[in-house]
Amino acid sequence: MRVVIVDAGGANTGSVRYAFERLDIEAPLVTDAASIRAADRVILPGVGTAAQVMARLQQLDLVEVLRTLERPLLGICVGMQLLFESSEEGDVAGLGLLPGRVSRLRGGAGLRVPHMGWSTLRATRPDPLVEGVDGAQAYFVHSFAAPVTGDCVLAGDHGEAFAAAVRRGRIAGTQFHPERSAAVGARVLRNFISPAFEA
Prior knowledge:
alpha/beta, Rossmann fold, 6 helices, 14 strands
């Protein structure tokens, strides 16, 4: 199983690598189209703003590579948000692999934005990506979120429901940080690299 991590400039790339090392998988950071296309699984992490990560992908000439990728792709945090058509954050266009627009969390009484910390995951439909994690808690750090649509497999709540994990065919994403979510995060990463993901 060859897993690669797209070096989109986020500060969490090292943590994502270590998360895979704990699963006995070496996942190198890559910036070239050939390595991405040759992989069995591709990870798109992102920390910062949607505009920063998209600008990095454009600079590396990887936008079309990711849009036309035929291998399973997992976006993490901002990487998941960029799977969608657009983001309210900087009014930036995303990769357009999933329909919908990412919007700013509104928060509410006693709820601060950004949403930071451990929150409960609620399954919205069965999927191999999220098998075994319904009702568990994962670690979030975000101010923007994707809507709960038919592509949502886990929902979270922070004054409103939002997509905590999504899946459409080979395209998947987690708004939470699996690399910082202990056993729950390891389970999701293990599910993603499992043959059952493509079954």
